[in-house]
Amino acid sequence: MDSCAVMRGSKTGFEKRVRDGMAPHLVDIDGDTCHHAHNASKKFSEPFERVLERFFTDLFNDVRWSVDLKEALREICLLINVTFRMPHRFVNHRWLSAYDSTMSTLCLWDALTVSYYAFLPKSNKTLYLSYVVEIYRRKSVSQESRSRIREILTSLSGKNLTADGRNRKQRIIERLTIKQKETLLHLHFYETVLPMLKKYVLVLEMKEPLIHTLHDNMMELVRDFLCCFVRPELLSKATTGKKLMDLIEMIDNGSAVLPGSEMFFGAKASAVVNVGLKKKDSTVQRFLTAASKAYSECGKYLLKKLPLNSTALKYFSTIDPVCRGHSASLASMLKITDCVLPNVRDANEKDKYETDLRRFHSDSSLPLYKPKEDRVDVWWWQVFQTGKYPTLQKIISAILSCFHGPQVEGHLM
């Protein structure tokens, strides 16, 4: 569940009402892990002072409220062979909105640079003309198209602007020209790192039950993220959720963190960083400091918030049909009713449950399970239809009913 008061309030929250009225045995493992991933992205952006998020908002509002600018941007996209799209609207509470805005902005970067050249002060147009010329050359823009673009820019530069519009355009121009290196460094860094969090959210937003893969997905996310900045000799030894959580203190004091120049930034950002380090570029130095802090704060947040050491989730992973027939899976599933779900079966059904479970793990007549094709709940339904395992059915049905994403808000509130 989400951790907000509506869901978890001690007096009238959804969890309290369900426990009191319908399900006293409700299993509460943790908050919605998709929210944790989204909040981790906010931790990631904080060291950069959210300059990109404000840039995204300025771009969206500027194009949204100016029909002339929108149409000019659309035509310039056509002339320089860029696919037109509206700048993505950054919404702070929408899943990984910063990543979607990043990709939209990068796709439009050349067209935005050309379009906003119209609003540069005359004294700066000569200084930044090379930015436009470089785009023309790289995009092989014809002389005819260049002439048409000049007409569009002349028309835009003659527009009467409100005070808010003028200030907003100045902020956008600063990001596109004066602080172009910094802006692109941040954009390419977001482009490289945020897909890890986005992928996790998209997987667990699916409507099919994935409780059996939740622990593995969390471990994969955390390890993939940590390997970008944590010393490999330490990460390779952290083979369990508990050992991963033990890295928090070492990340906090910096002993587990790689030097800034050895962290993963992606090919595009790394190319700028490597050149900047040789020249002792102050922009690159500031970026490395912010990036190191972004990695550390986001990594610590994931380690603290995700239930990596949850016994329940470890046991639940053994209901995956691919685990059937293994003694370790049998041992874990035997512990589920005693340690996690003691109220789902009756007290006198312990022997029946164990008998069902042992027969299930050795049953060769059950349907074949194809991990990449079959839904786990559909496969278990086929098993239930045989009528062989009535007590096991109670336990599996309870586990598969566990929410692992934000779907509960949309369906039950």
In summary, what is this structure?
The protein is mainly α and 413 residues long. It has helices at 5-8, 14-21, 33-45, 51-64, 67-79, 97-116, 122-139, 143-157, 163-178, 180-204, 214-226, 232-235, 241-245, 247-253, 267-279, 282-305, 311-316, 327-339, 350-362, 376-385, 390-400, 407-412.
What does this structure look like?
The chain has 22 helices and no strands. 30% of the residues are buried. Helix 9 (163-178) crosses helix 10 (180-204) and helix 14 (247-253) runs antiparallel to helix 16. Helices cover 66% and strands 0% of the residues. Mean pLDDT is 91; it is low at 408-413. The longest helix is centred in the middle third of the chain and has 25 residues, at 180-204. By secondary structure, it is mainly α.
Question: Which short descriptors sum up this protein?
Answer:
66% helix; 413 residues; elongated; 22 helices; disordered C terminus
Instruction: Please estimate the helix content.
Output: 55-70%
| Rg | 27 Å
Q: What is the count of helical runs?
A: 22
Specify the oligomeric state: single chain
Task: Report on the biggest sheet.
Answer: none
Which stretches are low in confidence, meaning pLDDT under 50 for 5 or more residues running?
Answer: 408-413
The total strand number stands at 0
- Report the principal-axis shape: elongated
Strand portion: under 5%
Q: Kindly, what is the distance between the CA atoms of the first and last residues, rounded to a whole number of angstroms?
A: 12 Å
Q: What is the string of SSEs from the N terminus onward?
A: HHHHHHHHHHHHHHHHHHHHHH
- What class, by secondary structure content? mainly alpha
Mean pLDDT: 91
